[in-house]
Amino acid sequence: MSFESLLNTLLPPDFFSHPSVQRLQRLLQQHIGDAPITHVPLGLFPELAGRLDSLAIKRDDLLHPEISGNKWRKLKYNLLMAAYLGHDTLYSFGGAYSNHIAALAAAGALFGFKTVGFIRGEAYESLNPTLQRATEHGMALHYLTRQQYRQRSDTVFLQQLAEDFPSGYWIPEGGSNALAWLGCAELAGEIPEGYDAWCVPCGTAGTLAGLLLGCRMPVAIWGVAVHTDVQGLIQAVQRCLAEQGVSMAAYHMAGDYHFGGYAKFSTVLQQFCQSFTAKTQIPIEPVYSGKMLYGIFDLLQRRQSPIKGRHLLLVHTGGLQGLEGLRQRGLWV
Ligand SMILES: *Cc1c(COP(=O)(O)O)cnc(C)c1O
């Protein structure tokens, strides 16, 4: 499917001619940078000898210092839609260390939206680095009990919640909705020909779904699940493809690299991440990019690697702000 037809199905016809959308687009262009492709010398990784011909990383972590990676991709068309609809307030949900909350708060401050974050758990005596930065950006924080938080996608719960707040634009947890696919499809469009497999970490698999929708070449896309609900990820991708009428899509989900669950990791993964960064000068973290890289490296080293490509492109989805929270809790050096 082409990016244009995806635009046409998800956006109203007068979207890009709307003055508020045009104004915001200009602002976005000024502040959000490029995501260059870094070529990683294979000589740095003797364990991959003979397994690959090239390894490249799409540096979405470099889009903006605080509006990071795939969270920006997912926010972009949501912000433009909020402008189109004339909203000045953005509401969303996230955990206390959420990359999405961090990106939303920074984007709101930069692009002129008020932001409100509904955070899972109780208010802490002192804010962690993620929430501290979010409040500095002017985000108002409201805490939801774990039981309330579980209802974060429930229509009735959302309606009740919305009644207590001024009208605004509501974005689901992680920014994962149909407009998020559009931003991730755009990312796919930036990748030149010549790579035969792309790899991405999966939390909701919204990014992987968007890459599939935006992909115009015969590549296999590998997702690495960062938690144990691998079936849920596959179902999410299938739902997206069905909704967009895509019947054929080449993707694989690697389910063995979650290290026990979301945000869990071992010293082995920590050492892998630190060694990767020392060799390449590319910062990664253990919740998303570290698990993806570890998983892809492990698959490549199997006697019969299921990854058939010889030219690999890994998508660095950002999320480096999470390292500060890990350091603060003494979980990372
Ligand atoms: C949220 C996040 C992901 C997961 O993206 P999904 O679209 O939910 O699969 C991957 N990497 C980073 C750094 C993230 O913050």
Give the N-terminus to C-terminus distance in angstroms: 44 Å
- What are the segments in which pLDDT stays under 50 over at least 5 consecutive residues? none
Rounded Rg = 19 Å
Tally of contiguous helical segments: 13
What letter string, H or E per element, gives the SSE order? HHEEHEHEHEHHEHEHEHEHHEH
- Compounds present? pyridoxal-5'-phosphate
Query: Assembly type of the shown chains?
Result: single chain
Strand order of the largest sheet: 1-2-10-7-8-9
- Helix coverage percent of residues? 40-55%
So what's the overall shape?
globular
How many β-strands, per DSSP?
10
Explained architecture:
It is built from 13 helices and ten strands. The protein has a six-stranded mixed β-sheet with strand order 1-2-10-7-8-9. Bound molecules: pyridoxal-5'-phosphate. The site of pyridoxal-5'-phosphate has 17 residues, from α3, β7 and α9.
